[in-house]
Every structure is written in C-alpha cells, then in structure tokens.
Amino acid sequence: MGRYRGPVVKISRREGVNLVESPKVQKYLERHPYPPGQHGQRRRRKPSDYAVRLREKQKLRFYYNMSEKQFRNLFEEASKKTGATGQVFLQLLESRLDNVVYRMGIASTRRQARQFVAHGHILINGKRVDIPSYRCEPGDVVEVHANAKKNEFIRENLEARKRGKPHPWLEFDADAMKGTFKHRPSREDVVVPVNELQVIEYYSR
Fold this sequence. Notes:
Ribosomal Protein S4 Delta 41, Chain A, domain 1, Structural Genomics Hypothetical 15.5 Kd Protein In mrcA-pckA Intergenic Region, Chain A, 2 domains
C-alpha cells in the first residue's frame, strides 16, 4: 500500500484527529466531529481490540505520511534496537528528513516538506539531499538551498512558524533558513495523537 494522496480532511475525519496539524482542518473537525460519508453520523458498535490497534497504526502512518512498507520496515528496525521500542520508533520517525524540514517550519505540512526535499530545495551539511526518508543524525546541519530562499511558500511558512514554539531537539535560524538536528528527541518531547503501544501490539500479534 502506497502513501495516502487523497484529501487530508477526509482522512483526518475518518481517524478522528488532525493528522496534518492544520488550523483549517481542526476547525473543520470541530464542525464535523464524525467520519465522512453518508453513514458517518450513525452510531457504531464498539470496535474490537484488533480494530483499535489497526486504527492507531493507521493514524501514526498517515501522520508521518508514509507507505505501509516504509512504516513496517522502520518498525522492524526499531524493534531490533536497544531501548523501549515505542520511543526508538518515534525517534526514527522524527529523524526522517521530510519530518525535520516540517518541524523546522520550512514546510507547512509533511507532504509539502516531501516535495521540497524531492525538488532539491534542502541541503544537509552543505550537500543537496533529495531523499525524503534520509535519516538525520545528531549534529547534521539542515538548510534551504540558495536557489530556494526566495521561494514564497518557504518564506511564508517561516514567517508563520516564528510565532510557534520551537522543538527542543532542533535549532533553527529562520533568517538564515538554516538549522541543526541537535539530538534525537525524548518521548516526552514528541507529541503525537497516537498511543504507540497499540502500534507495537498490532505488529507483534
């Protein structure tokens, strides 16, 4: 199964959370707090344990805008590392270049961040990297390519993000359009609308 490319509002309504962290989507969810479709407002029976775990897995996968194959492979890698699997898994997800570009405020969504990376707008340690799944390591310097610094979307995103709260594992200078991936985040620093333990149980069944 590939990445979801449909309407972000529709998938957010189906999962019941704002998967793209957009104020517009949040307002829409508040006005329509039920799944999409003609049967969305019907009372539904209590989901099974399997269904609950599946939905949590899907939420996290859509949240990070990944294909099922990429997502599962990353989980299997996390499960083989030392430490709590849930925390390691989230650290690997947060280390993806498309996510780092989004977290720094260069892009307004992870979809847009993926585009910026694929189009060669992002440099890592001075070298162009066009692979969204590239794994950032502590100390890596992430910056906008000189040719993309006049991009109106990037400039608007950075201006809007100046009003936001910075993430403690990242350092970013909006004026220079340059930042550093300082370290992998702790579990307490990563706020996701998902119970990752349910995801672990889903894959461990």
